[in-house]
Design a protein that fits this description.
Blueprint lengths: L2 H11 L4 E3 L5 H5 L10 E4 H12 L10 E4 L5 E8 L1 H7 L5 H10 L2 H15 L4 H4 L1 E8 L13 H12 L4 H12 L6 E6 L3 H5 L3
Parallel strand pairs: 4-5, 5-6
Antiparallel strand pairs: 1-2, 2-3, 3-4
Helix pairs in contact: 4-8, 5-9
């Protein structure tokens, strides 16, 4: 089975789960904060995992990536893990470098990729990832450009204030994530801004 064939199969079976990445972004779900929303359709893989586990009778669901898609060339299967550092920083008290490192550790990047690959393998061929290219995209909003005029309620206004005060920690969030993914070997892992998703997919 090719990359295109697996993605088409999953997209056909789960049409309701197909949409832009912003639909899965907790920040964008509450307000139109993004200045450059991604346009490439992705599939909500957390929901696919839930459906898969129910069918298999799996009670303790494994961790999984947030979404899947394919590169614009159709040659690379892409796993997407979306992390909203903006929201974390805005609502977390006493943020420092150690707290950010602990948060990165809680993200379980490797475990999510391994479990997601296993599910996709069972939906395709045992050797799917041996004969096809794949990439793991850690997508963050830490360096995204957000609309400050989108605060349309008191809660959103308070968020905008907190978000502005947390900007100094964004570089550390990016650095901590980079340190975590640097431990991956033999895997095409990219750490990118959510607003660069389309551009990245065009290069794979």
């Amino acid at each position: 089975m090719t990359v295109r064939e697996l993605f088409k199969k999953l997209r056909t079976q789960h049409r309701a789960l197909v949409g832009p990445l912003c639909r899965l972004h907790s920040l964008c779900q509450t307000a139109d904060y993004c200045t450059q929303p991604a346009k490439t359709p992705v599939i909500n893989f957390d929901r696919i995992k839930e459906i898969y586990c129910r069918k298999k009778g799996i009670i303790h669901m494994p961790p999984s990536v947030d979404a899947i898609t394919i590169s614009h060339s159709g040659h690379t299967f892409c796993f997407i893990e979306l992390k909203s550092w903006v929201k974390y920083l805005a609502y977390t008290k006493n943020v420092d470098a150690e707290a950010i490192d602990r948060q990165v550790h809680r993200y379980h990047f490797r475990e999510k990729l391994q479990a997601s690959m296993q599910i996709c393998t069972e939906m395709s061929d045992p050797d799917f990832f041996s004969v096809n290219d794949f990439a793991y995209l850690i997508v963050t909003d830490a360096d995204a450009q957000l609309r400050t005029d989108a605060a349309q309620s008191f809660a959103m206004a308070m968020f905008s204030l907190a978000e502005t005060s947390s900007r100094r920690w964004r570089p550390e969030c990016i650095a901590a994530t980079d340190r975590a993914i640097s431990k991956f070997r033999g895997i095409n892992v990219r750490h990118i801004s959510c607003q660069n998703l389309d551009k990245t997919l065009s290069t794979l």
